[in-house]
């Protein structure tokens, strides 16, 4: 599948690019700065012996059948506004957690209740937002030898959710569908909880769903 | 410890009463209707060979060092208003999930963002609310032979949280502290997600935190 990463030169983006390229997908690493996108793609290709391309964020949108947006919450609204026209008809995966430093271990709901509800409102009916990957360590994503001991919950409209669920399995993670986009409130707000647990217990906390049918 | 259950004659309340009484705590089953509280306590005592008492909800508040409120969200605000004076100085555990039928598998935030934030606002500074036990099946609680394959996340002020964590371990569950009461948003809103997973996958979904230190 053709996957475009908006804001793809960060730690989370590069881990996703690496794992999806290794799984055989056609990955494009986008950045605000086209040269940084090209350079990051070349660096990953050389380091890991994989094939992928890079450029600016609009290039990532043009390339991707599925577009992944991985930016800090402070850049969330302007980034979605800037790609609005470029993602028409596409599935857009929002992995943003609306953390507000310095209180990153307490839930602070954004104005729209969830970042993913805000991005869907910005994009309008032209694109379909799926929220996913809020609880996965970028360090673990970037280490292809790491085997995950946690699940990915994802929510959004059914068809788009199923498309993204398959891509998540290709990262080496179990994908569990978690309902409509309203449920992004739950997924996003579990991240401060996991950050609290990490600090209190010295953990690298993840979520696992138990009680799934054998 | 002396534990008072407000709304304790429902399925969740009776499961908690049973397990805590078996663990040696002094349990009082409260109900709006005093006779129902007395009858439920007598029924549990006879059926399971345990000792516990019953009566009305204010009796449960008077009895408990820790007071557990287990009512549907529709009764949440009036119940907390009715016990306000009776729980002064106590730890109050709110296990309410603000589900709004019929859409119980989608997050619908209450006006105060979380039921537990609403109950703390109703009680004021006189009592300390801890939010917990949102993800545990009442059927499993009520079956003393059932061994849980999930964790209990709980949040609130630190000392109160630690008190409640010990009680939760006495139910046969692992308690994991999850931060301040603001994080009740995450805990409460995970319940619609688990209900969605139950329906979609035919699961009896629970949450397990992975990555805890050995």
Provide tags for this entry.
homodimer; 214 residues; alpha/beta; Rossmann fold; eight-stranded mixed beta sheet; 8 helices; globular
What does this structure look like?
The structure is a homodimer of 214-residue chains. The first copy, chain A, is α/β, with parallel strands linked by helices. Chain A has a single domain (2-201), classed as 3-Layer(aba) Sandwich (Rossmann fold), CATH 3.40.50.720. In chain A, 40% of the residues lie in helices and 20% in strands. Chain A contains eight helices and nine strands. Chain A has helices at residues 11-22, 34-48, 57-63, 76-83, 115-123, 138-141, 158-169, 184-201, and strands at 2-6, 26-31, 53-56, 66-69, 91-94, 128-132, 151-156, 174-177, 206-210. Chain A has an eight-stranded mixed sheet with strand order 3-2-1-4-5-6-7-8, with helices on both faces. In chain A, helix 5 (115-123) links the parallel strand 5 and strand 6 (128-132). In chain A, helix 4 runs parallel beside helix 5 (115-123). The first copy, chain A, starts with a strand and ends with a strand. The model of chain A has no long low-confidence stretch (mean pLDDT 97). The interface between A and B is large, with 41 and 41 residues.
In summary, what is this structure?
Chain A is built from eight helices and nine strands. By secondary structure, chain A is α/β, with parallel strands linked by helices.
């Amino acid at each position: 599948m053709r996957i475009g990463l908006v804001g793809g030169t960060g730690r989370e983006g590069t881990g996703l690019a690496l794992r999806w390229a290794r799984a055989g997908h056609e990955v494009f690493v986008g950045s605000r700065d086209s040269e940084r996108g090209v350079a990051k793609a070349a660096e990953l290709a050389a380091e890991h012996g994989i094939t992928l391309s890079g450029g600016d964020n609009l290039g990532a949108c043009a390339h991707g059948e599925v577009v992944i947006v991985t930016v800090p919450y402070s850049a969330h609204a302007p980034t979605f506004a800037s790609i609005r026209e470029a993602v028409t008809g596409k599935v857009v995966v929002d992995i943003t957690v609306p953390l507000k430093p310095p209180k990153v271990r307490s839930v602070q709901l954004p104005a729209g209740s969830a970042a993913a509800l805000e991005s869907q409102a910005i994009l309008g009916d032209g694109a379909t937002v799926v929220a996913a990957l809020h609880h996965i360590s970028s360090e673990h994503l970037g280490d292809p030898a790491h085997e995950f001991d946690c699940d990915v919950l994802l929510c959004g409209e059914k068809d788009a959710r199923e498309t993204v669920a398959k891509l998540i399995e290709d990262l080496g993670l179990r994908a569990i569908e978690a309902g409509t986009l309203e449920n992004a409130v739950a997924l996003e707000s579990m991240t401060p909880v996991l950050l609290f647990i990490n600090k209190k217990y010295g953990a690298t906390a993840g979520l696992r769903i138990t009680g799934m049918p054998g």
